[in-house]
Amino acid sequence: MNLTLKVWRQKNAKAKGALETYKLNDVSEHSSFLEMLDMLNEQLINEGNEPVAFDHDCREGICGMCSLYINGEAHGPDRAVTTCQLHMRMFKDGDTIYIEPWRAKALPVIKDLIVDRSALERIQHAGGYISVNTSGNTQDANAIPIRKSDADKAMDAASCIGCGACVATCKNSSAMLFVAAKVSQFSYLPQGQVERKERVLNMVHQMDKEGFGNCTNTGACEVECPKGISLEFIARMNREYFGASIVAEN
Questions:
Q1: Are residues 75 and 153 in the same domain?
Q2: H runs (alpha helix) in 30-102
Q3: Closest by alpha carbon to 123, among 59, 174, 69?
């Protein structure tokens, strides 16, 4: 395929960025989207130009670092995949593809297509942990009976990889789907009960502190999430937060 790429270039967080146009030819439909960007960078380097900075690591849909806004959609036109799992067969010969970083005040651009997602990490640090007695008498986790329905929901919530697609696709740049997944992951399990109330209060407080917007139940976050995290977890987090707030006030 021969493609026209409109790529966001930005030297640093303070610089004013802009879309730049590149022509890229002979792209295989079997290539992944990141392999296509590798081709572009090889072309730019051969021409003596600076390559496009983009984030990536595992390229297996696990880490979420490859996150890109492609033709106005988080992770591109495919569904339930990260950018590294998106293949060029989703595009056609002659297409113009717009490639941008996440757009959110809480996720500032570092360079080109790379954003600073440390705000999500700080939310996780605020409450995404459990207290376990490690005195040498630790009970094996598998020895604690858990209802299968609760275990399944906990695993569904735990599948969140923190890529930030929910933030990028939300008109309010809300991180509530991410926070709800992390809160719910622990709330379904007996190991998560010790910090249950403090967890939801601390994580929601940190989310607000980071400057993320509020949820308006548009549902775009669930649609664009590469792991299909359900909006139901936001409802659960709201219930958890309400209950913890009443206890805190009393």
A1: no
A2: 33-46
A3: 174
